[in-house]
Amino acid sequence: MDKYPEMKGHYLVMDNAPIHSSTDIGKYIHSRGYRYVYLPPYSPELNPIEQFWSVVKNLAPHLTPPYSTLLQTVANQRSAFLTLLHLTPPYSKL
């Protein structure tokens, strides 16, 4: 986030993954001058990537290519997905 000065004053939104709830992570974020907030537990509707993976997981068994091929395709296209996510309200304000 340091590369983007306009991010100062914004919150870093994190899910409740164990790595995110470490006190070291919170200290590091604060030391860099940022603030953070956690999503409520069990709230995939607030986390766009969870919505995306839900669709992928539901479609995967019905697709011709193997699941691993699908995952590789998704990984290769992640930048396009993130660009779309960045430009799509309400997530464009994150």
In short, what is this structure?
The chain has 94 residues and is mostly helical.
Topology:
Blueprint lengths: L10 E4 L8 H9 L3 E4 L9 H12 L7 H10 L1 H10 L7
Parallel strand pairs: 1-2
Distance between the termini: 12 Å
Counted up, domains total 2
> N-to-C SSE series?
EHEHHH
**Rg over CA atoms:** 16 Å
Rounded average pLDDT: 77
Strand fraction: 5-15%
Which regions contain 5 or more consecutive residues with pLDDT less than 50?
none
Secondary-structure-derived class: mainly alpha
- Helices, by number, come to 4
Please report the total strand number as a whole number: 2
The major β-sheet equals:
2 strands, parallel
Strand line-up of the largest beta sheet: 1-2
Shape: elongated
Helix share of residues? 40-55%
InterPro entries: RNaseH-like_sf, RNaseH_sf, Tc1-like_DDE_dom
GO molecular function: nucleic acid binding
Protein name: Tc1-like transposase DDE domain-containing protein
Organism: Rhizopus delemar (strain RA 99-880 / ATCC MYA-4621 / FGSC 9543 / NRRL 43880)
Q: How would you describe this structure to a colleague?
A:
The protein is mainly α and about 90 residues long. The chain has two domains: about 1-40, no CATH class; about 45-94, no CATH class. The protein is about 45% helix and about 10% strand. The protein is built from four helices and two strands, in the order βαβααα. The protein has helices spanning about 25-30, 50-60, 65-75, 80-85; strands spanning about 10-15, 35-40. It has a two-stranded parallel sheet. The longest helix is centred in the middle third of the chain and has 12 residues, at about 50-60. It is elongated. The two termini are about 10 Å apart. Pfam families: DDE_3. InterPro entries: RNaseH-like_sf (IPR012337), RNaseH_sf (IPR036397), Tc1-like_DDE_dom (IPR038717).
